Amino acid sequence: MRNDIAIGLDYSHNNMLMLEASSYADFTQFLFNSGYKLGKIEAGFYSSEKLGNYDAVIMSTPKNVNLSPEELDILEQYVKNGGSLLIIGARGGDYLNRTNLNELTSKFGFEFAPDEIYDSVTYVNLQKRPLLQKLKPHFITEQVRKIVLSNPCSIEVLDFLEDEKDIKIEPLVKGGINCWRKKFDGDEWVEEDCPKIDLMVAVEYFKGKVVAFGTLSIFSSLGREYGFSAFDNDIFLANILRWLTTNIEMEGKALTIDLQLDLFHWADSIISKEDWENFSDLINISLKYFKDNYNSIMKEIKKIRGERLEKKKEHLEAIKKALEVQEKPEEEELLEIIPERKKEDLEGIIGAIEELTGEKYERSIDFEEEEEKKKALAELPEDLNGWTVKDLKKFCTEYNIELPPNARKADIISVIKYIFEID
Fold first, then answer.
1. Most buried among 230, 348, 355, 374, by the most CB within 10 A?
2. Residue range(s) defining the domain that contains residue 276
């Protein structure tokens, strides 16, 4: 990745996302650690020349302020000529935020809906924080397994795009099948189901790019369960900025690394203490060392893994021995070594099974009529050993005779003799 990438943040429309705000400290620190050059756009979007100094511009929803017609034209031209926009909406869309952001986004093929999305099944603590796991494969979603968007509005893709060859729009994140929303229909807020609704889009517009989603909370440092550090939100945002600011075809594949939190803090302290340029330099040095010492490092890793596998094997063998796990002999072999049960032995047999399983089994069976019992007795052969296990079980099922689990043939015969008082 280039080390001179410039990103501008809109400060001119009463925007909420500001670098100085402590609630966005983690995101701000990420931008600095990633080597981005940051700038504030405080005079609006009235100069194409000044706007052209930025590789990407981040626009959070204007509050109670409209973009002027001139700003709308300059921003569109900026993207058309190769610039990139990250546009962040908010719940309720333009209606609730009293702005005209959709006049800009409609140029790129989409609009923020006047709604707020909920999920009744898959969410984090509150239904207004949908947890999203099924993401469309894309550079932006690489290494991203789960993200959470708190209080988001949805995105409506406009129909006319089919005839526009210079616009390519991809919805990368959709709501789950249990999503529902509160939507302003022009007169009042109504509730309705909205499964698989679009929540984030990536757009290629002539030479430029646009990414949009409908919540600012993803940048927050305050909400650990839904903000910048929640699930893969940080990787998701890192991928977005790299896609917007990197020419993938020219510069190759950029990688987003999912660092463990303790490693991140350690690396961050080293960068600060030793005055490293950024994380990229530290990671490159680490990979260089790994490359130069690959054989010895892998030998040590394999040794440690082998020791762990051996311990695991010993542990499993100990459990197997303790439980006396053995293969059961074939049914016919069992009949040769197990004596035929007498009916007076049944109490002991079932009692032992109950003690092992923790379940209770009936010792008797009630027949509604004497005729039914006579019928059952008539079906039984003189020598029960002549029946197969399948025949015996079928007979027990037909007459609702409950058997212990995994009962052997001799045990089934003992149960039948016990119930029907056969000697």
1. 230
2. 262-291
Tell me: do 44 and 164 sit in the same domain.
Answer: yes
- pLDDT at residue 338, rounded to an integer: 46
The full length of the chain comes to 423
d(CA 411, CA 417): 10
For residue 211, give the DSSP letter: E
Q: What residues contact residue 221 under an 8 Å CB cut-off, 6+ apart?
A: 22, 23, 24, 25, 26, 27, 227, 228, 229
Residues 96 and 181 in one domain: yes
Phi-psi region of 315 (alpha: psi -120 to 50; beta: other; left: phi over 0): alpha
| 286 phi, psi to nearest 5 deg | -60, -45
As a whole number of angstroms, the distance between CA 9 and CA 12 comes to: 9
Q: What backbone torsions phi and psi does residue 359 show, to the nearest 5 degrees?
A: -110, 155
Residue 31's H or E segment, with its range, is helix 25-33
Do residues 119 and 194 lie in contact, with contact meaning Cβ atoms separated by under 8 Å?
A: no
How far apart are the C-alpha atoms of 25 and 222, rounded to whole Å? 9
Q: Are residues 251 and 361 in the same domain?
A: no
- 18 burial type by CB count under 10 A (0-12 exposed, 13-18 middle, 19+ buried): middle
pLDDT digits 0-9 by tens, 34-67: 999 999 999 999 999 999 999 999 999 999 999 9
| Residue 152 shares a structural domain with residue 268 | no
pLDDT, one tens digit per residue, over 118-159 is 999 999 999 999 999 989 999 999 999 999 999 999 999 998
Please check whether residues 45 and 119 belong to one and the same domain: yes
pLDDT band, very low/low/confident/very high, at 382 (cuts 50, 70, 90): confident
CATH no. for residue 99?
3.40.50.880
Split into its structural domains, the chain has a count of 4
Rounded CA separation 363/351 (Å): 10
Q: Beta partners for 110?
A: 157
98-124 residue pLDDT tens: 999 999 999 999 999 999 999 999 999
Whether 1 is in a domain gets the answer no
